[in-house]
Structure prediction request, 139 residues.
Amino acid sequence: MKTKRILLGLLLCIGLTTMSCSNDDNEGETLVPLSGKWDLSKTGTVINGTETLTDAAENQSGCNKDYLELKLDNTVNVGDYSSVVSACALTVQSGIYSRSHNNLTTVVNGVSKTQDIVNLTLKELKLRDASGFITVYTR
Prediction:
C-alpha cells in the first residue's frame, strides 16, 4: 500500500512537470521589461545588407544624452538636450505608447510612430522604423 502511494505520487509529479512545460511559446516576443529610461546612443541604417551605426548626432556635446522614457502607465517622455537657446536646455515632450508583440508605437504631440523592436535586452533597446532607420538606446 505504501509503495503504491509513493509510485502514484511520483507519477503525478512527472505528469505535472511534463505538462507544465509543453507550451512556453511567447510568439517571438522578448520578456525583458520595456519600461524605463533609455539614453539615445546610436543611429543608422542598413545599406546593402550591412547595418551601419554611428554615435547619435542628436546628442549635444557636453550635455546629457537625449532620452526616451517609457513608463509603466504607458506614458512616454522624450527628452531633448539642446544648446540653441541656452547651454544644455532640456525640452521634454510627453505622450503615450503601446507595445504589440515586437512593435513599439508612440504618439507624441499627435504624431504616431510605429517601430520594430529589433533587439531588447536589459541594457539595449534597438528600434527600426518603416524606412529602415535604426535607433539604439542604452540604459
Summary: The beta strands are 36-47, 50-55, 67-70, 75-82, 89-100, 103-108, 111-120, 124-128, 134-138. DSSP finds one helix and nine strands in the chain. Residues 20-28 have pLDDT under 50 and may be disordered. The two ends are 59 Å apart (CA to CA).
